[in-house]
C-alpha cells in the first residue's frame, strides 16, 4: 500500500556532552567516582563498562539526573531499548531543569519501548504527552502515533482502535482514515495475490478510501490504494462467477441450475463494474500524479528562489 508517512515517531537523544571529573575532597564521593569512570568508558565507546559504572553511581546517588540521562544514552548504543526507556523515565522524574522538554522526552521514551517490542509501555509514555495537549488536532496526532506503535508491532486490532480515537477527535484526520483503509485492505486479502478476498473488509477499506479522497482529491496515491482494493474485489467476483457457472453445469435440477446461473450473471456484472472502476482509478492517478509533481516542482523552485534571495549580498 502506498501511504503517506505518519511522520517521525520518537526522537534521538543525540550526542551528549560527556564530562566527569573527581573533585578533590577529604572524603571520597562514590557517586562522582563511579560516574567519572563511566564517562571515561563512554568516551572510549566502551558502553557495557560505562553502564556498569553508572549502576554503581546510581546506587550511591539515585537522584543524579545527569547519570540517568547518560546511562540511557549508553543503553541506546548497545540496543538495550527497554533499559534506555526506563532510565529516561527516571531522568524525567528527577530532573529539575525547567528547560527540559518533557513532551519530547516522552516521545523518545515511547520510541525506545516500541523498539523493545513493548507498544503498551510506549502508549503509557505517549498518554503523558496527550494529557498536556489541549487542541483536538494535537490529541488526534498523538493517538495516531500511539496507533503506529501497535501497527509496527503487528497488532492490527489495537491499532485500529487507536486510529479510531484519533478520528473521533478529528473526523477529517486524513492520515488516520488512510491507515484504517490500509488495515481493512490487509484484512481483505490485498497482500496475497492468490489468497482469498474478504468482501466485508474490502467494503470497509473502500469506504475509508473514499473519505480520504473526499478530503484530499489531489493526492495521487490514494487512487492507487483504492485501485489495489478494487482489483482484489474484481478477481473475487470473477472467481465467484466461475464457481457459480460450474455449479450450474453440475446441477441436476433446473431450478438449482437457474439459480446458479443467476448468481454467475450477477458476479460477472460486478466484476465488470470493478474492472471499469479500476480503469477510471488508473486514469485519475495519472492525472493527479502529473499535477502533484508540477506542484512539488513549483514549490521547490520557489524555495530555491527564496534561498538565493536570502543569500544575496545586501
TrEMBL record:
<dbReference type="Pfam" id="PF07719">
    <property type="entry name" value="TPR_2"/>
</dbReference>
<keyword id="KW-0677">Repeat</keyword>
<dbReference type="InterPro" id="IPR051685">
    <property type="entry name" value="Ycf3/AcsC/BcsC/TPR_MFPF"/>
</dbReference>
<keyword id="KW-0175">Coiled coil</keyword>
<keyword id="KW-0802">TPR repeat</keyword>
<feature type="repeat" description="TPR">
    <location>
        <begin position="140"/>
        <end position="173"/>
    </location>
</feature>
<feature type="coiled-coil region">
    <location>
        <begin position="245"/>
        <end position="310"/>
    </location>
</feature>
<dbReference type="InterPro" id="IPR013105">
    <property type="entry name" value="TPR_2"/>
</dbReference>
<dbReference type="InterPro" id="IPR011990">
    <property type="entry name" value="TPR-like_helical_dom_sf"/>
</dbReference>
<dbReference type="InterPro" id="IPR019734">
    <property type="entry name" value="TPR_rpt"/>
</dbReference>
<protein>
    <submittedName>
        <fullName>Tetratricopeptide repeat protein</fullName>
    </submittedName>
</protein>
